[in-house]
């Protein structure tokens, strides 16, 4: 393996671990003399991870918000979905200047959250700070800056007439959601924030039993630097090559499914770049963790095609070219109703008949 020169990973380091960077590159970062191999230790257990890392300061406040949100919507008879969205970072220094990032703009999560809200679900939207969010996603980030839709004249500032109809629909939905109080947004930055927040949320939401759904669209780091091995200060560039040894992040789906929330309806995502690997990797995840659905997607086609893999079958949701490019249909508008239908079946099977297998 060629070792990347420090200059290639120095400065504002925002390399992608499992969203787009090939694994061999990650491994070469983990030290030339000790490449990850079959003899490498596996991930630490979730239990060991939580015992040896510090929870984010915002956790107690967020827990309180989740608790009152869940209590209220349980009381009002709404189903709750927890949507995770965006990528997690892995800091290289405690006082972080550099970090490794995961690919995800948050489009999948933010778009899906809107369709869940439309279908009457209460949504806990757990997202990477500054990634796309429901409703505002239509007018944020570089391609859709809201200023592009505005004009100024003697009467003040207005939305340009060509955009009014579309913006009115989005604004109305946004206001309705605000009024109903059906959207709770919580943010994370690092993989550590994500792991603690997901555990806390799951333990609170578990009281909803089969009526809760998890839609795990976030791109979660697979490797991290344990807190006790992280440099406190900015890593200096005068010392030549930078070799990093990273450990595997515990697979959080395991305790989620088995311990924290065993009766919830859980959907995870699998992102691959090689189409040939996708069915096998998705099925492997399903068997390993025992949850209900894996949604497989390929990086380059993820907005047009997804595969839904369950223990019994595999199906596909695919937009035609016309639907995608002319009608601008969002694939999430097909994914979400299908999942809601399957969640209802799960409630019937697991909740009513006790067949939770
Ligand atoms: O946001 P966009 O730009 O629209 O992109 C959307 C997406 C491509 C990021 C999304 O559709 C997607 O595929 N998300 C999952 C990407 C991913 O990296 O999967 P993974 O192979 O790291 O993890 C698979 C599943 O295992 C995930 O559901 C994750 O929640 C779970 N996981 C991952 C790591 C870890 N330590 N523990 C886990 O349980």
Put the structure in a nutshell.
With 357 residues, the chain is α/β, with parallel strands linked by helices. It has helices at residues 6-9, 23-29, 46-52, 59-75, 107-118, 161-180, 191-205, 253-260, 278-289, 321-326, 332-352; strands at residues 80-85, 90-91, 99-100, 122-128, 150-153, 156-159, 183-188, 212-216, 223-224, 247-248, 265-272, 293-298, 305-309, 314-318.
Shape summary: globular
Largest sheet: 8 strands, mixed
The total count of strands amounts to: 14
Strand order across the largest sheet = 7-4-1-8-11-12-13-14
Strand content: 15-25%
Q: In angstroms, what separates the terminal alpha carbons?
A: 44 Å
> Which percent range fits the helix content?
25-40%
Give me the strand/helix succession: HHHHEEEHEEEHEHEEEHEHEEEHH
Give a structural overview.
The protein is globular and about 60 Å long. The chain has a single domain (59-223, 251-352), classed as CoaB-like (Rossmann fold, 3-Layer(aba) Sandwich), CATH 3.40.50.10300. It is an alpha/beta fold and 357 residues long. Helices cover 36% and strands 18% of the residues. The structure holds ligand PMT.
Keywords for this structure?
single chain; 357 residues; alpha/beta; Rossmann fold; eight-stranded mixed sheet; 18% strand; disordered N terminus; binds ligand PMT; phosphopantothenate--cysteine ligase activity; DNA/pantothenate metabolism flavoprotein C-terminal domain-containing protein; DNA/pantothenate-metab_flavo_C
